[in-house]
Specification:
2 copies of one chain form a homodimer.
Chain A lengths: L3 E3 L4 E4 L10 E4 L2 H9 L6 H17 L6 H16 L6 H14 L5 H31 L7 E4 L5 H4 L5 H10 L5 E5 L6 H12 L4 E4 L4 H6 L5 E4 L3 E3 L4 E4 L2 H10 L4 E4 L5 E2 L16 H4 E2 L2 E2 L6 E2 L4 E4 L6 E3 L4 E2 L3 H10 L1
Parallel strand pairs in A: 4-5, 4-7, 5-6, 7-10, 8-11, 10-16
Antiparallel strand pairs in A: 1-2, 2-3, 8-9, 9-15, 12-13, 16-17
Helix pairs in contact in A: 1-2, 2-3, 2-4, 2-5, 3-4, 4-5, 5-7
Chain lengths: ~350, ~350
């Protein structure tokens, strides 16, 4: 059961907005459907967004009918721009767009380009599958037998189109035979923890306790948590990390309670072009995600609400960044440059 | 529009579980209905629970038919026990029970006792009205013109059967002519921030922005918050404070970002019998409050969930405790003893 699967002329995805109530697959037959699925978070999670976008670009390119290269490029650019405007924070999206763009440049043979784009999308997917599996087993070495691990949002197979990042590390530790328990935050407003993380862990028979985001401090302060692991949407050159709103708070709580705070992400999530987290764009989503759940209104009509979807965790709060190439510790700048440069 | 009103032979309350959708009054005609209303959080907030319990005890006593004092005491004790078992954390409940019990002791004249109980409940109510108004105006001196104040859960008139504690300070500052904005956390699981605080502030025309609990760190780290003010359910002798789950996290975030963290509470919330917050009992509520909202299931069937309703903020994180008698700063022990002893 693959969260994202290329089917030759369309993209089949698990519609993450339907879980955990229903396991529904969506078949996306045009690039605009893929863009919409990313915007509406039918597919979400930084690596998964990158993979879906790559396939979406390949899908869009198949339908380009152009007389010459200029016209092809113009239509292709429109496709790339649609994806670039879908969501701003996860850098994997922009990395996928860059890779796809480069593939289309060298030749005037459209049929060749179209095939090369499919191949490149598959390569991006394979890279993320490989990277997430590698980083998971590397990271599992950090996890002691008998650990209770707190995680936020969802960073499992659904989020990565691979083995998972934060949940990948947890799964790998469990597969090593370690006794692991997970505390999963529900992750308001969109409840990826309650909807997806709890569901994925239950599928894998890893014991999980669901809490509201506000309860993390309670469990950390009572020594109920051995470490915190989260995924990432973009990591700046200095190690500052953008991830789901609420991550920064968990890092502060971990530090205050002397608990390690790990970020697990493939190197495709590292953006060396940004010096620090201040430069990472933070998506502001529709306030109705805060004031409503499943059609139920939670707040008075007309109330103002804010909905930043991510926050920045400064590198000083991060114990280690787990990538597929190495487990990186402070100071991050030099080592991250080496890893991504490789 | 009083949140709690004694009507001679019954207790009229605003049913807080119906807000903000509907403003519904419940008429409670027996003490068991009052106990149920407290358990189900139709009436909630530490001072309001104390006031409702006092009236509920008076109401229950009116219906006691006993031939002698021993039988009266036995039935009266059963009433007191029902209230004591309603909710464990807010000390105002137990303080009200103690006051009501003392009133019933001196005489054998049941009619006199019954009237004295009504009078005492009214006195407890008047005490809280007076205390919350006083502490609000005292606390308002701490608030600078142009402040943005972050608050958690609900500590307004609904919670206090008076002027409010945290929201009382905010209202008083606004009434002083200061330009005040509020950021209100929604306060999962039961959403008192979204349901009640947003509603009360909108009634008072004080600008409010609703956020999820997980967003507080984002706004604090971006210098968007000048101070944090919360209420309290019980304050131990050393200043450690039990309040709605999530409060501890806000205190840590405030400290990390150099922002003052204030607790506003009448002295009836101070429990000198407990040396520290470790001794404060924390209510564990039904996990379905976490896994469901308004009949909608948020998490996979069968998932385990935790639901501690309060957490403890150690006194070291509290900049000041605002009471009706004084604004208390560290070290808390001596000064809190003096205040409550008065």
């Amino acid at each position: 059961m693959k969260p994202i699967e290329w089917q030759g002329n369309r993209l089949k995805i698990i519609d993450q907005t339907q879980l955990p109530g229903k396991l529904v697959f969506a078949e996306l037959c045009s690039y605009t459907e893929v863009v919409a699925a990313i915007k509406e978070m039918k597919v979400r999670g930084a690596p998964a967004i990158g993979v879906a976008a790559a396939y979406g670009i390949a899908l869009g390119a198949q339908n380009i009918k152009a007389e010459n290269k200029a016209k092809f490029v113009s239509q292709f650019d429109r496709i790339l721009q649609s994806f670039a405007a879908a969501r701003p924070t996860a850098v994997n999206l922009f990395r996928a767009i860059d890779r796809m763009k480069k593939v289309a440049e060298p030749t005037d043979d459209f049929a060749k380009i179209k095939q090369a784009l499919i191949d490149e999308a598959k390569a991006i997917h394979a890279n993320e599958e490989d990277a997430t599996e590698r980083l998971s087993w590397l990271g599992a070495e950090l996890i002691e037998d008998g650990s209770t691990i707190l995680t936020h949002c969802n960073a499992g197979p659904l989020a990565t189109a691979g083995y998972g990042t934060a949940l990948g590390v947890i799964k790998a530790a469990a597969e090593q035979g370690k006794k692991i328990e997970v505390i999963a935050t529900e992750t308001r407003p969109l409840l990826q923890g309650a909807h997806l993380t709890a569901w994925e862990l239950m599928q894998d028979n890893i014991p999980v306790t669901l809490i509201t985001d506000s309860m993390a401090g309670y469990f950390l302060s009572r020594s109920k948590v051995n470490c915190v692991i989260v995924g990432a949407d973009r990591i700046a050159a200095n190690g500052d990390t953008a991830n789901k709103i609420g991550t920064y708070t968990l890092a502060i709580l971990a530090k205050e309670n002397g608990v390690p705070f790990y970020v697990a992400a493939p190197t495709s999530t590292i953006d060396l072009s940004l010096k620090s987290g201040d430069q990472i764009p933070i998506e502001e989503r529709n306030p109705e995600e805060v004031t409503n759940i499943g059609g139920i209104r939670l707040a008075p009509k007309g109330v103002k609400a804010a909905n930043p979807a991510f926050d920045i965790t400064p590198h000083k709060y991060i114990t280690a960044i787990i990538t597929e190439k190495d487990i990186v510790r402070k100071p991050y700048l030099r080592r991250l440059k080496q890893l991504v440069g490789r």
